[in-house]
């Protein structure tokens, strides 16, 4: 008898933490497609993601806590 998605979800949540983490990682990798098995491709993909994340605050694409603090300080100094 095949399990439904809800039954699978309940069974997965009942697993010990380490097994749930491994299952989650395996499921995420399965979404990446065949390149996920190629260590060079995985490293290149992560390098691109890290570079993209590092550029975001520089180009103003993300509101960082520092920008909020900097603005508060500037407002205080302007008074």
How would you sum up this structure, described in words?
- The protein is mostly helical.
- It has one domain (5-78).
- It has four helices and no strands.
- The longest helix is centred in the middle third of the chain and has 21 residues, at 39-59.
- The radius of gyration is 21 Å and the shape is elongated.
- The mean pLDDT is 81.
Structural category: mainly alpha
**Overall form:** elongated
What would you report as the Rg, rounded to the nearest angstrom?
Answer: 21 Å
Low-confidence stretches: none
| Oligomeric organization of the protein chains | single chain
- Helix-strand string: HHHH
List keywords for this structure.
0% strand; 76% helix; elongated; 4 helices; mainly alpha; 79 residues
């Amino acid at each position: 008898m095949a399990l439904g998605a809800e039954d699978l979800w309940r069974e997965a949540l009942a697993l010990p933490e380490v097994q749930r983490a491994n299952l989650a990682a395996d499921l995420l990798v399965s979404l990446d497609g065949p390149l996920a098995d190629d260590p060079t491709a995985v490293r290149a993909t992560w390098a691109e993601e890290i570079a993209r994340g590092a550029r975001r605050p520089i180009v103003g694409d993300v509101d960082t806590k520092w920008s909020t603090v900097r603005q508060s300080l500037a407002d205080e100094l302007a008074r």
